[in-house]
Design brief:
It is globular and about 40 Å long. 29% of the residues lie in helices and 25% in strands. α1 (20-27) runs parallel beside α5 (87-96). Strands 1, 2, 3, 4, 5, 6, 7 and 8 form an eight-stranded mixed sheet that branches. β1 (58-62), α4 and β2 form a beta-alpha-beta unit. The chain is built from seven helices and eight strands, in the order αααβαβαββαββαββ. It has 209 residues and is α/β, with parallel strands linked by helices.
Length: 209
């Protein structure tokens, strides 16, 4: 892995095994993880505002890590459920959103411990590419959404020598039979999101089902 976000859940055997409980203490040190820099934080807040409904909604943040995106969603008036395989990450997320309308659960992003058809948004950052059967996982995530709900998937292809990730064209192809509308938003050109210039493929897909 390069500087991509916490993948954390059901990683394939081809990926290095990471102890995410051990990584939790320093996870927020990356600019796009902790969102401590006001410029980076506002850049993500603005993107999230454009991807999420403009009214209070139920958002499921899968592979939520320490809850940085969950916090932005909560600040924008949404009700958040976060799921992560790492108990240490979940503990940090609970602390970060203490007193807010948010619940965090320890569980696998591929099969989160939540009921079906109860969310308006499934939000996932840098997790899908690590999962062994993305098509099956996307179908499962679709079933977690209410009618007219949306998948917000932030992904990319990182590195040049041994690139890792999932290309936008591949992901939109997997979503075609599941979604009524699929929109791709390129993120590589916005250095504010990452705290620096990046040259690899980074993007978000918003798919309405």
């Amino acid at each position: 892995m390069t500087d991509n976000d916490h993948s954390g859940d059901a990683a394939t055997s081809a990926l290095p095994v990471t102890d995410w409980d051990a990584e939790a203490a320093g996870f927020d040190d990356e600019p796009d993880h902790g969102l401590r820099d006001p410029v980076v934080r506002e850049a993500w807040a603005a993107r999230l505002r454009s991807w999420l409904p403009d009214h209070p909604a139920d958002v499921l943040d899968l592979g939520c890590g320490t809850g940085s995106l969950s916090l932005l969603a909560s600040e924008q008036g949404h009700r958040v459920t976060g799921v992560d395989l790492s108990r240490a990450m979940v503990d940090r997320a609970r602390g970060k959103l203490a007193g807010r309308d948010a619940v965090f659960l320890v569980g696998d992003a591929a099969a989160p411990p939540v009921g079906e058809e109860r969310f308006d948004v499934v939000l996932v950052r840098h997790v899908l590419w690590t999962l062994p059967d993305p098509a099956r996982v996307l179908r499962h995530w679709q079933g977690l959404l209410r009618a007219g709900g949306r998948l917000v998937l932030i992904e990319g292809v990182w590195g040049t020598v041994s690139p890792a990730g999932i290309a936008a064209d591949t992901l939109t192809g997997l979503l075609a039979p599941l979604a009524a509308d699929v929109r791709v938003e390129r993120l590589s050109g916005d250095a504010r999101l990452w705290g620096r210039e990046v040259e690899d493929e980074r993007y978000a897909v918003v798919a309405t089902v």
